[in-house]
Each structure stands twice: as C-alpha cells, then as structure tokens.
Amino acid sequence: MEIKSTMIIIFNILSVFSLCCLTFLHASDPPLSLDYYKSTCPNAEAIVRKEMECAVQSDLRNAAFILRLHFHDCFVQGCDGSVLLDDTYTLQGEKKAPTNLNALKGFEIIDRIKNTLESECPGIVSCADALTIAARDATLLVGGPYWDVPVGRKDSKAASFSQVETNIPGANDGLLSMISKFMYQSLSVTDMVALSGAHTIGKARCTNYRARIYGDYQTTATMNTIAESNLKSLKSTCPAAGGRDNNEAPMDYISPNLFDNSYYHILLRGEGLLNSDQQLYSSILGVQTSKLVKQYAEDQIAFFAQFSESMVKLGNITNPETYVDGEVRKNCRFVNT
Q1: Is 277 marked as binding a ligand?
Q2: Annotation says 72 is catalytic
Q3: How far apart are CA 216 and CA 120, in angstroms?
Q4: Would the annotation count 82 as a binding residue?
Q5: Is the pTM higher than 0.85?
Q6: What is the pLDDT of residues 78-124, one digit of tens each?
Q7: Would the annotation count 80 as a binding residue?
C-alpha cells in the first residue's frame, strides 16, 4: 500500500505540473472556424471526401494511415502540416525521425487531395486543414463517427525532427509517460483513452510489439484458446531474437478494418498488442483509465461521442508561429519558394 500511495502522489504532482505547463503553452483558443472556406473554396470538404472515398475503397488500411498521419502531425508543433515536409538541403523534416521512419504512410493520398484542391482553389486550402479533414473522413468511411472540423490552419515553414521523439507516445511507454505527453498537448486523460481507440483500425510493426508478446502478454491475458492462437501467430512472424522488424499485425485482431469499440474489449481481456495500450487497463495507476476502458467497451455510442470531441481538441492544437509566418503550401512536401 505504501508503494501504491507513493506512486499516486507522484502521479498527482506530475498532473499538476503538466497542467501548469498547458496553461502557458495553449493559453488562447485557435483562430479556427467552421465556415473559413465558405466564400473562398466552398467545395473544399467535398473534394477531400471524394479523394478519401477513392483511397479507402482501394485499400481499407488507408483510413488508418491518414488518422496516424494527423496524430503525428498535431503532436509535433501543433497541426501545421510539418509531418508532410520532405527533407531538403535546408530543412530536416520529421519523416525520417526514428519514431516515424517506416511507420507513416499515406503521404501520396494527401498529395492527390492537395492537387485537386489547388486545381479548384489555388493557394487557399492549407495542407494542415486538408489532413485534418481527411482524418475525419477516414474515420467515417470505415464505420466511425462524424464531427465538424474547424478550419483555418496555416502550414508551417519548419519541422522538428527532435520533437518527434520527445512528444509522440511510444509503444512501450508507461502510463505516466503517456499521460504527461497528452497533457503537454492540452489533452486530458479522457482524451487519451478515447483517442487511443483509433487503434481499433490499423497495424503495428513487430519492433513495436516484440517486448509485449515476449513480456507480460501472458500475465495480463486470459489466455483462452483464441488468445493462445493469436499469441502463437504473433510470435511466428515476430521472432524474439530480432529481425522481421517491419512485419505487421493488427492492433485489433477482431475487426481490424472496422472502426468500432472492439479495441477496448481486447484490453479488458488483457490482449492489447502494445504495452502502451494494455497499460490503459492493467497499470496499477490506471484507476481512471481502466474505468474509461470499461465504459467504452460497454457503450460504443459513448466512445464515438468522446472520440469526436477529442479529435476536435486534437485538431485545435495549433502552431502559433504559423499565424505570423505560416503559409498555404502549393505542394505539401515542400515550403513555397
């Protein structure tokens, strides 16, 4: 009990510290609105939707790719399109940072969306906005909820290779580390658990779940016939000794291409693929997070409602510098010349 009390005290101190930092980092509401393109590019959302429909129809995994791109963009400098920038002689982008390398896909989808937007409304719709709208449509097209997307973001002329490693939660992060990283972005514990539900679609690489399947998976899992079969399959494609790092497995093996609440059912059974996922339910500090996991497992409508709200909050993380020195990129991969 003494150890648990000490850990809870540490958690409370960390929470207060993080919240103090939040007030400083995100003190004002972002200058975004729902009708930003009403007169300048009224068909902007329709264009994004059509391109996303084509992308998801061609490959359901494209929905997960775009959702992940949006998340990785917003956690570094805010939702400013910085993750889309290629490396140049004068700019080091974020794509080759260890956490992003081999993990991010779907850039060509944003390229197609941007090309169509430029044909209809040259120089009007930012890449940051296009990606944010696309993330909403990606979710909707695989069975997830709809939400209105505030727009008006500007694209950054810079990127941050280093912030990728410090800001983005890792697959083996503990609960306190994850909470700290979300709070740094003005996102609450509730936001964290809801946004983690995006793992109901998409896959993870062997390098990110190796520690889990050869670690405490058997400790947390109920190890019924299905769980044993799934673990055996995971180990067959992800050897303990290393290699095959880029082999992939679905984070929700029940319905990997459908946006639903089965991810939370998997956590309740102790079968989360990533350590960071299972921590939400199994961590000794997860009093609040485990309650939320249970709630969303029992009530998909509640999960959808909170996910929509949390995605708006995520999308509203802005980069203040872009409203002073930002731009609308003509090509999402490069700063305008």
Answers
A1: no
A2: yes
A3: 53
A4: yes
A5: yes
A6: 999 999 999 999 999 999 999 999 999 999 999 999 999 999 999 99
A7: yes
